[in-house]
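It is worth pausing here to work through a concrete case rather than discussing structure prediction in the abstract. The textbook approach is simple: state the sequence, then state the predicted structure, then interpret. We follow exactly that order.
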Amino acid sequence: MAVTVETLEKLERKITLSLPLSAIQSEVETRLKRLARTVKMDGFRPGKVPMNVVSQRYGYSVQYEVLNDKVGEAFANAANEAKLRVAGQPRITEKDGAPEGEVTFDAVFEVFPEVKIGDLAEAEVEKLSAEVTDSAIDKTLDILRKQRRSFAQRALEAAAQDGDRVTVDFEGKIDGEPFAGGKAEDFQFLVGEGQMLKEFEDAVRGMKSGESKTFPLAFPAEYHGKDVAGKTADFLVTVKKIESAHLPEVNDALAKSLGIADATVDGLRSDIRKNLEREVKFRLLARNKAAVMEALLSKAELDLPNASVQSEIERLKEGARADLKQRGMKDADKAEIPDDIFRAQAERRVRLGLVVAELVRANNLQAKPEQLKAHIDELAASYEKPEDVVRWYFGDRQRLAEVEAVVIETNVADFVLGKAKVTDKAVSFDELMSGAGQQA
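Step two, the predicted structure:
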């Protein structure tokens, strides 16, 4: 029998389902008989409970279960017969006035939309490129040297300067009253590296061992300590020790200490270049993919299924609750989070997912096995034992699916870039690493 599908609004559809009461009753009786063989009740031996007692105790719940199963099965068959791609779960309500011997239900649901992608030749994409320069390698070397610096105490008459490590005692008061976290003894920090608020660093810079100073410090309004944010405190600081930093020289010994296979300066620089080039490649891929996705969305027309958006909102809320729990928030899993906080993000994700899926389907852009292997090999290359990392990825379906999604995105990006109006833009290594020059 042909299924009648009624269009309600945009993606919303309705199907009326009719079920014969005889089929429902027959299935209820079958399940009650099966239940009677194992049910345990006071006063009866197992398997010897009379059917009328079993029916009285369990009849309603079994009938409810059968009805759910039969309606679900009827809906699945009807949707399949009508060749509908159902989004989310249907809302099913019983109808009055059914013909004798039947029970009827209305199933209201959404379908996935038709996705129309315009002419990609008209899409505009700015494609970034960047190179690893000698300057970038020098900066990375400086960071590695700082991580391995040593300190030596300076003369008593020496003043604290940028790069020095100072040991201080301090106490802060607001309106003459001490506050939590405002006092410390033998506290160490590096001058000029942003470890302390600017006013604190400015006060200590130029002081000598044994000196004390009182100075005002205005806490920023967005300061993490809510009790003092936006307030001004008076601090008394005493410098107890000043140590100057000594950086290791760039030589073969440094290369050896870093575990470089070719323990020479050239080997060290080559290793840094290789790692930076890998990082640059992944960052450029991410940036250019983002630009492609924006261009793709600008050329796509589709309605969004509310069920899919709501499902994505719930996923985002669960992620937010998990994050709050990790930060130590009590009862984070019960936190009330309004849907509207995540609605725009959820709508964008659903829209992008549907558009990408349509482009992949229409142009055969699925991830091929050799692409998955090549991507995983590249991810594993920076580890000490790449083969273990490769096994780790291939040993878990979820991890493999995440890689598959990345490869599909890359295929989509390459496909769009091959058709769109592409403007090449070179950015510096520093711009790429800092996020400057990113597309809006």
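Step three, interpretation. The chain has three domains: 5-110, 120-133+256-302+347-434, 150-246. The mean pLDDT is 90.
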